[in-house]
Write a structure and sequence with these properties.
alpha/beta; Rossmann fold; six-stranded parallel β-sheet
Length: 185
């Protein structure tokens, strides 16, 4: 059972990540899993936090004022808190996520969203360092294939697996959506 209250932190599930410039993505079930988690958190009276990346680059698919800056359809309803950020970690956004969680008495957070290895991982590392009981909901994240420094193409699945291995039992507990749903009150 999750400690109550707890919070689901939904990171950067924005339309701009559908732009072809990002390349091949993994985990086509990501958005459906996130929608299920949002619904379950609301139904059980837990908190839901939406995080939005407002890129400072006017040409970015995530730039404010563009369609890409909007949340995807899977992200519905009003959050208990909306954090707007310009960098990778949701803890460097506004309003202050850490302060809000502390004010709410929340010590357990579940992280999901886009991308697995950038904003989700960075937020999970900071959450762990700040002392939160952090759940990293791997099947409710997705990432993209990437080209490494030597030119090798790394698949999104490989990157997600490496992220999970790096986080688990160090910064967070890597879990599935089903495992989180089983733990909700």
């Amino acid at each position: 059972m999750l400690a109550s209250p707890s919070a689901l932190v939904v990171i950067d599930v924005q339309r701009g990540f559908d732009a072809p410039t990002w390349g091949q993505r993994n985990n086509p079930d990501c958005e459906a899993n996130i929608a299920t988690l949002i619904s379950a958190y609301r139904r059980t009276g837990q908190r839901v936090v939406f995080v939005r990346h407002d890129s400072r680059d006017a040409k970015s698919p995530l730039a404010p004022g563009t369609t890409g800056n909007l949340f995807k359809e899977a992200i519905s309803g009003e959050p208990d808190l909306l954090v707007v950020k310009h960098v990778h970690s949701a803890f460097y956004g506004a309003p202050d996520l850490d302060r809000w969680l502390q004010d709410q008495g929340i010590q357990t957070i579940a992280i999901c969203g886009i991308t697995t290895d950038h904003c989700c991982e960075t937020t999970a590392r900071m959450a762990g360092d700040l002392g939160y009981d952090t759940l990293f909901v791997l099947d409710a994240t997705h990432t993209f294939d990437r080209v490494g420094p030597g030119g090798a193409v790394l698949s999104g699945d490989l990157i997600a697996s490496a992220t999970a291995a790096s986080l688990d039992n160090e910064f967070a507990s890597v879990v599935t959506s089903a495992q989180v749903l089983e733990r909700l009150p």
